[in-house]
């Protein structure tokens, strides 16, 4: 793909990446799973249109039922023709949210997900974005796009809000019963990501543990801890207890995918339960309802910092192309942020930096 | 110990156990670690005095430096003599929060913790309460008080607030690399506890997992799931994802201690981070500050439901006597609730019900 003339973009354009510095962009092609997620294709199309209107260096290839996709664009005023920079690859199958990941990837060759992943594999797209079946995205990323040489297991690495900015939880993916060497690579990959993409100097890397002392933990953590201490090129600060994750004591929180999944989902669940409890409290008396009306704008601004959808999707790191998973419940704004996020991976040559940062063979 | 005439107590007296029904009490002796925790001995003494004044069927034995304890009581107006129903066992050692649990229990024979646990072992006290080193309490409970015959590993089982009441997370203790058979016993013990002590009919038991489907999970969960399905006497409802824990979809959430510790600590950390973010938002503008003042009483009531200290300490289940761990940062109110909680274990013959409920040899 031809390089577009670089242009300086300010951080305002990236509500999802608040720590990002001013960056220079080049053209990128993103394949999008138009049929994946609870709100597909409506929110996927809406998010795609929003991303295209915010940035003129993105091309998208929507994978899915072309009739349904065209109908969706029609609802947004695109009568008869698609917007510029949008193409569609017609697919006849869909992978459901509850399907067995590997089986679905292997059998449904003409699904929007498999077709999209293959576009990355074949170099026709730089990145693939989906809000569909998480396990299938992870399996497809590894099986179809493929791991970078030397990467043992690609981790899914979402960015979560903290009191002081954002942190990465790595892995939240499919690597349930992890080995110490995988966790060491997660620490390295997370470190490169937080430095190169989020712009944090010397990111603090910690292992999620049940106490601060080195002798604490389960067998995996006890075995991994000394390896992380010896790993060059990362700023390993030791253990992080779960209570310190929301405080932002570490930039990269390393764990196996089971623990990462618990952290990520409890984060979402508890935040939403607490916020509805608070809303309930704020409207429980006449006085409090008046108070709530006065406080609402300020409160909304504060809570926005804890809105996970601001931060775009979670990348599957260590694959030969970029694969990004967004929430199954993603709405247009999250889809838009996820598509915009893809630009930085290419612009910053993330894969190259990862390869060199970890000392893999290029 | 002589049985006191039973009396009916209403739920108002138990702010910590909101679901508890009216209960009948008998006399109980609680050994208390006067030197354990961040706020010892001040808050321990204050909480003890409060518990004694709320209930006249509790006797306490405070273990610790008798001079310091007497001085503490003096500060609460007990000049020259201790309150009725309080005795002191003088100890010369303390177990620090960062000490190696098993070593500390084995070596510090005259520590407040070891002496208190031995009082339970020798039948001189029915229960032991400490806000000290968690690992040492767990190790001491197993090594000194001892497991009930047939119990593989005693789990630590805190009660957490949810949108619909409370749930138990079992295990949050020292059993890091758990075996499936341990988790099955955790499910059984948690079920008896939630039924007998909290008063929930047919408590819903779920295993903490990364998805709803049976084939999801790490090796431990996959192996345990079918065993739980076959376990008689529990109402096993399948997997619970972490996002559904705060919603209260299950009464007993079964997991290994590493995962349980992550859940418990993230719960505490995220709730406190969010609440301070909200406070920050509520006072960020003049209008919102006025609004906050109007809304404060209603909001305070709502947030109280999410105050973990309301629910007393976390029991270590499956030991020959009752051992209860409270937060290291416990203040007087939590100490008080934890001491009051001990009465129910004896009144309800929890150990007897557990033994029969799980089908252990008595």
Taken in chain order, the helices and strands of chain A follow as EEEHEHEHHEHEEHEHEEHHEEHH
Helicity range of chain A? 40-55%
Query: Structural class of the secondary structure composition of chain A?
Result: alpha/beta
Envelope shape of chain A: globular
Strand order in the largest sheet of chain A: 5-4-3-6-13-12
Distance between the termini of chain A: 21 Å
| Rg of chain A (C-alpha, Å) | 21 Å
Main β sheet profile of chain A: 6 strands, mixed
Separate helix tally of chain A: 11
Strand content of chain A: 15-25%
Q: What kind of oligomer do you see?
A: homodimer
Please tell me the overall pLDDT of chain A. Answer: 87
The greatest inter-chain interface is formed by: A-B, 67 and 67 residues
Unreliable residue stretches of chain A: 1-25
Please outline the helices and strands.
Two copies of one chain form a homodimer.
Chain A lengths: L7 E2 L13 E2 L3 E6 L8 H13 L3 E7 L1 H10 L10 E5 L10 H7 L4 H10 L5 E4 L3 H12 L13 E4 L2 E6 L9 H17 L7 E6 L9 H12 L4 E7 L10 E3 L2 H26 L3 H19 L9 E3 L5 E4 L6 H16 L2 H9 L4
Parallel strand pairs in A: 3-4, 3-6, 4-5, 6-13, 8-11, 9-10, 9-11
Antiparallel strand pairs in A: 1-2, 7-8, 12-13
Helix pairs in contact in A: 1-10, 3-5, 4-5, 6-7, 6-11
